[in-house]
Amino acid sequence: MIKGMGKAGEDLKQVLETYGISQNKLAVLLGIERGSVYRWVHEIRDPTAETVREIVKALKEIEPAAAQKFVEVYLGELN
């Protein structure tokens, strides 16, 4: 079951903190403003499904283990 509103941001925040990845570094790789990442991790807005795919790609570039962990915690039993 895919989790509800804010779940992607909650999971992203956990992964960024665990792996020491800054919101700014992720934003730069995604080609977006840091404020967008801030809004996700503080559960103000959810990233779109397409954006979640882009987040996973960016995390793979920074730290493959972080990308894998994000997929595991976000998708849970679907993965």
Q: What is the gist of this entry?
A:
With about 80 residues, the protein is mainly α.
List the helices and strands and how they pair.
Blueprint: H1 7-19, H2 23-30, H3 34-41, H4 49-62, H5 64-75
Helix pairs in contact: 1-3, 1-5, 2-3, 4-5
Shape assignment? globular
- In DSSP terms (H or I, runs of 4 or more residues), the helix count works out at 5
Can you summarize the main beta sheet?
Answer: none
Task: Find the CATH superfamily.
Answer: lambda repressor-like DNA-binding domains
Kindly report how far apart the N and C termini lie.
10 Å
Label the CATH architecture: Orthogonal Bundle
Low-confidence regions = none
Keyword list:
single chain; 79 residues; mainly alpha; 434 Repressor (Amino-terminal Domain); globular
What does this structure look like?
The protein has one domain (7-78): Orthogonal Bundle (434 Repressor (Amino-terminal Domain)), CATH 1.10.260. It contains five helices and no strands. It is mainly α and 79 residues long. The chain is globular. The chain is 70% helix and 0% strand. The longest helix has 14 residues, at 49-62.
